[in-house]
Amino acid sequence: MDDHPLFREGLAAAIDLDDHFTVVAEAASGEAALTETARTDPDLVVMDLCLPGISGIEATRRLLTAHPHLRIMVMTMSEDDDSLLAAMRAGAHGYLLKGALREEVLRALHTVARGGAVFGPQMTERLSALFAAFGRTPAKEAFPTLTARERDILDLLAAGLTYRQIAQRLCVVEKTVRNHVGAIFSKLQVHDRAAAIVRARDAGLGPQPQ
């Protein structure tokens, strides 16, 4: 599922050359990914993060809710920690950057299809550092009323990102971010961004003191 036709078609052609895989559908948007998955019932989906309409993160979350058996591998240009964590929270089983070689992509697909998890070599050190820092209270436990997307946005707020930067990071429009922030304020019973950030950092979100 990718909105760039040349990349999507090239990837599909490379995958089709492997005797173990058959490409049953392609999609250029998050909504189309949901529709095509419902129509074809694949075993494995390759998902970009930045898609028109709903993001790849949200599409991943919805697909796994509707099709728990599905395996999803993310292929993206985004190599930042927030995107990696958001993909993992959504349930992705693998995360590769688009610069990966064909052989690396196919090995990852085979591993994910067999039930394993794959994260490209560029992401391994990031994961190790992130897991080492996870000794604090998980946001899901601290804020059980927030949705997964609201927790992602609160995390980015706590990291100091502006609404526009958050919108760009999550591949949504700024108005959508503001709507989510309004819901976050209501659920946390705070009246402004500063108070929300204090609550978030107390729960372990955002940058932590060394």
UniProtKB/TrEMBL annotation:
Residues recorded with modification 4-aspartylphosphate: 48
Occurrences of domain HTH luxR-type (ranges): 139-204
Cross-referenced InterPro entries: CheY-like_superfamily, NreC/VraR/RcsB-like_REC, Sig_transdc_resp-reg_C-effctor, Sig_transdc_resp-reg_receiver, Tscrpt_reg_LuxR_C, WalR-like
CDD domains, alphabetized: LuxR_C_like, REC_NarL-like
Gene Ontology molecular-function annotations: DNA binding
Domain of life: Bacteria
GO biological process terms held by the UniProt record: phosphorelay signal transduction system; regulation of DNA-templated transcription
Response regulatory domain residues: 1-113
Keywords: DNA-binding, Phosphoprotein, Transcription, Transcription regulation
PANTHER family referenced in this protein's UniProt entry, alphabetically: TRANSCRIPTIONAL REGULATORY PROTEIN NARL-RELATED, TWO-COMPONENT RESPONSE REGULATOR
Protein name: DNA-binding response regulator
